[in-house]
Amino acid sequence: MADFQTIHAGGQAIAVRKDLRVPMRDGVTLAADAYHGTEDRPRPALIAMSAYGKELQALALTTPPQRRPSPMWDGCIEAGDIARVVKEDYVHVIGDMRGTGDSGGVMIGNYNAGGVPQGQDLYDVVEWVAAQPWCDGNVGMIGISYFGSMQVYAAAERPPHLKAIFVSGGHFDFYETTYHGGIMWFMPRAAREGRGGDSGIAHTDVRSRMQEVHSPEELRKLVDERLRDPDVAAWPNLVHVLRYPRNREFWFDIVMNDLDGEWYEERNPVKLAENIDIPVYLQIDQGRGWTVDGHIELFDVLKGPKKLDIGSYPPMQSRPWIEEHDKMFRWYDYWLKGIDNGIMDEPAVSVFVEGSREVVTAAQWPPKEIDYRPLYLRPRHKLSPEPELMGAEHAAPDGFYQAPLTVTDKVEIVSWSTEPFEEPVELIGTGAAHLFAEIDQDDTNFIMRLWDVAPDGGRQLITTGFLKASHRELDDRTTEGNPYHPHTRAVPVKPGEIEEYVLRLYPFAATFRPGHRLLVELSNDEPLADAHNALLPPDAFHLPVGRPVTHKIYRDAAHPSRLVLPFTKRHG
């Protein structure tokens, strides 16, 4: 069994088995490395699989962890702390998905491996690892973000030797990952093209799914149609990607599919998770609300033993990824090593509450009883529990004109604020923003950000909401304070008409302390730089509106523009 080389890292000797060839059922072989202690005996294994390249993950042995806004932060080094995994007496298996890195085969489209569901390959990897003499047959998985999503795909296939998973920061509903409220998000471009702090996909043979299913003539027509969107046509990178998709195949596919439906639903991990019956630990930090939303949605679907851990702001963890390992090893010591450490005696849900900095635990999300209550937009940029009594002729609308970013560097923002709170006010859950608005174009973006503003003017982002105006339709999942949009079609707005737009405010947990205010900001583009954006990679913004738009926000007796927020009953 001793066919490994020995290296030294993290103050210890580590055995490395390089370039293992893992056979898939269709004859393709995937490449993997295995790291473990030098004592030659079987151990439980933790598998990390991605399209980013196993050699990049090996930098965790030599590169000190970086936090944003360090320019050395690389978002793709996500497989975990190799030296720590070895120290805890596990085998760390790091492999390349088919069509990437040192693996064979072809990858077609996002989360689809050459016509083979990625879960099928992951099933074969799990079972192969479990059969190796250096593994004791107990297998889990490890890694954040892309690696987290892969764990869900693997578990949904039910490989017999996958005993539990620990998912940190995964991305699940892939439409919601790439279009927030129907507005294109650029961060998947970074992870796929290698931009703005990400190394990107380790291309070997990756292909566009759109190019596979459409003839060149059909695709040219579809590309021309996509370029008729003025937002897309105004953004140079998107014009370039659509005209020259080679080596940008994954991002090309995302840009070409701006509506939800079959293209995204075929491999939606949330739906696949209905098949998962092994123990699942879900961990996510606040500050990037859409990923919090996905973890909660997945948690509600799972039927086996499960935990949901929502951590504190800021949103971006270190790269190489090292956080959450203490929790992860408690989880795997229980499920893979049989150590009764009491973790399953603890509540299923744990939520860090910003402001109070308390940790609230419960059996479910939200962890406390809540009352959805409104805060109304009022004249003079105020937020109040009481609605406006005057009509539009006396309570004239607020508004802003936004020129396209092709001709200005200024992002216009209109805001409303509460008075300073006199006692602590706690909110935990999702929320909604009802905006009665009139625009002079057939589309725009509504981007809302909620802040906790301290008496000294310091502020922290609490949650966000996004909605492309043409995606304003609601579906039958919608309840008070918890709106959903189908995003299956775009319905142009009739310029000059007042419409009600309902934005989903992503899940959050915050206590506003005495003297603090709740500030809500509305724009149709994101600020080019602020304290929150500095914590995100450079590409973590949304596609700006490519046309000039005038926005009027009505908030009068006939147009009750308001926030609907989850006030906990304890602080009612």
Model description:
It is built from 15 helices and 28 strands. The mean pLDDT is 93. Helix 3 crosses helix 4 (146-156). Helix content is 20%, strand content 30%. By secondary structure, it is α+β, with helices and mostly antiparallel strands. It is globular and about 85 Å long. Keywords: Hydrolase.
Summarize the structure.
The protein has about 575 residues and is α+β, with helices and mostly antiparallel strands.
Q: Tell me the distance between the termini.
A: 64 Å
Please tell me what the overall shape is: globular
Tally of DSSP β-strands: 28
Number of helices: 15
Rg, rounded, reads: 24 Å
Bin the helical content: 10-25%
Strand content: 25-35%
Residue windows where pLDDT falls under 50 for at least 5 positions: none
Biggest sheet features = 7 strands, antiparallel
Domain Xaa-Pro dipeptidyl-peptidase C-terminal: 329-564
Keywords: Hydrolase
Protein name: CocE/NonD family hydrolase
GO molecular function: hydrolase activity
Features:
single chain, 572 residues, alpha+beta, seven-stranded antiparallel beta sheet, 15 helices, Xaa-Pro_dipeptidyl-ppase/CocE, Xaa-Pro-like_dom, hydrolase, CocE/NonD family hydrolase
